[in-house]
Write a structure and sequence with these properties.
The complex is a heterodimer. By secondary structure, chain A is mainly beta. Chain A contains no helices and 11 strands. In chain B, strands 2, 5, 6, 10, 11 and 12 form a 6-stranded mixed sheet that branches. Chain B has a 4-stranded antiparallel sheet with strand order 3-9-8-7, with no helix packed on it. Chain B is built from no helices and 12 strands. Classes of the chains: A mainly beta, B mainly beta.
Chain lengths: 112, 113
């Protein structure tokens, strides 16, 4: 298996623009997680899904952030409008259960 | 709520030195415990795990023992290499078998030749 695939790897955008990050989980995994990593705040869980259903979105910072999982093989994290403070590395991870998570390589987002 | 506390970094060692990274946790119930490693420019990857008290997880020369009496899961390696330079995260499984993990803040290890 190719592992968790995230795209794009790097994204540079201007303040106010819409940003969409994409994730393809490992086939057969029931859980999908979105994290944000910054130097100041470390690794933060934003939202996670079980069988395509959002279970806990309490980590989503504000209404500008939204996440969807239309099917078992695809998820998106959208930021609209983006702000400079959203600059971070965003990780997607999937899990077959039993609490072991497999992380993608991340998307490095820079909002100018 | 459940939480994980790791020693502050960065930890700087010379090659072949002994490594300990401390991790303590607070949890209800009986969580599983994990160490993840993040190499520069990459995502986190599982290093080792332990699912019950007194279990020892091991991988690539790293070890950690699940100590329920001290609520600890310290990571050790007898002889570090430059290639071990990375950020190490301690984590515990969330309650209710949700698949969720609770991560510590991460400890940066830098190994110098």
């Amino acid at each position: 298996d190719a592992g968790v695939i995230q795209s794009p790897r790097h994204e540079v955008t201007e303040m106010g623009q819409e940003v969409t990050l994409r994730c393809k989980p490992i086939s057969g995994h029931d859980y999908l997680f979105w994290y944000r990593q910054t130097m100041m705040r470390g690794l933060e869980l934003l939202i996670y899904f079980n069988n395509n259903v959002p279970i806990d979105d309490s980590g989503m910072p504000e209404d500008r952030f939204s996440a969807k999982m239309p099917n078992a093989s695809f998820s998106t994290l959208k930021i609209q409008p983006s702000e400079p403070r959203d600059s971070a590395v965003y990780f997607c991870a999937s899990s077959p259960g039993k609490n072991i998570q497999y992380f993608g390589a991340g998307t490095r987002l820079s909002v100018l | 709520g459940d939480s994980v506390t790791q020693m502050e970094g960065p930890v700087t060692l010379s090659e072949e030195a002994f490594l300990t990274i401390n991790c303590t946790y607070t949890a209800t119930g009986y969580p599983s415990l994990f160490w993840y490693v993040q190499y520069p420019g990459e995502g986190l990857q599982l290093l080792l795990k332990a699912t019950k008290a007194d279990d020892k997880g091991s991988n690539k020369g790293f070890e950690a023992t699940y100590r329920k009496e001290t609520t600890s899961f310290h990571l050790e390696k007898g002889s570090v290499q430059v290639s071990d330079s990375a950020v190490y995260f301690c984590a515990l499984s969330g309650s209710g078998n949700t698949g969720k993990l609770i991560f510590g803040q991460g400890t940066t290890l830098q190994v110098k030749p």
